[in-house]
Fold:
Amino acid sequence: MKMTKNKLAKGFTLVELLVVIAIIAALAALSTPVVLKQQKKAAATEAVNNAKQMFILLFEFDQDKGAYPGSAGVNSTGAVSADSNAVFREFFISSAIDTEELFYCKNGLTIKPDGDIGTAGTNTEACAAGEVGFHYLMKTATASHGTSSPSGVPLVITPGDAVAPTAASPFAINPFGGRAVVLFNDGSCKSLPITAVGTAGLGALSTTAAENPLSATYPPNVIAGGAPVILPTVAAP
Structure:
């Protein structure tokens, strides 16, 4: 009986392989911007949800202390909070919460919380450097808002300049794709567009001064005593 050899299948030539690689690379390049945009949108949505939960903490804190954290009269330390991290740490000291995840957001300016909140009553490890992604807004340099403040005043913002946020250009533009998250005193949380202003990569809300909740001319802020004071977070690592 005569034996026959099966004909071996022809493999890819080097040129064909290069063409396939080029096609895959082109498709990846086209899809990357879409993927990144969706990631930023998802991060902003998560920040909105976290901010809304923060309002519940703020409301409950006010019911117990008579105002939101930040001012000397309500803080456990008896002193005004120097930064946003210290403000949010008050929730741990008052046993209102035991997880740092709420104060973290994927804005590229912070690190994932390590879960260490320190010893109950002082909680010095809670909301440590780099673990907070939100900036807290005070009524004045020494006074915090409360439930009696106008409903339209802003309380929490992100993504902010991690070092020295100002009312003129408090936001980092890129993390959420040119949008900012702002929590208001009525419990609403809005995603608002940002316009580049001042230092590269930073910007302000895309609105007139009269309609900008971070401006001294915004009606609720005039009633509350002027433009909000934005506390810095501890410098990001």
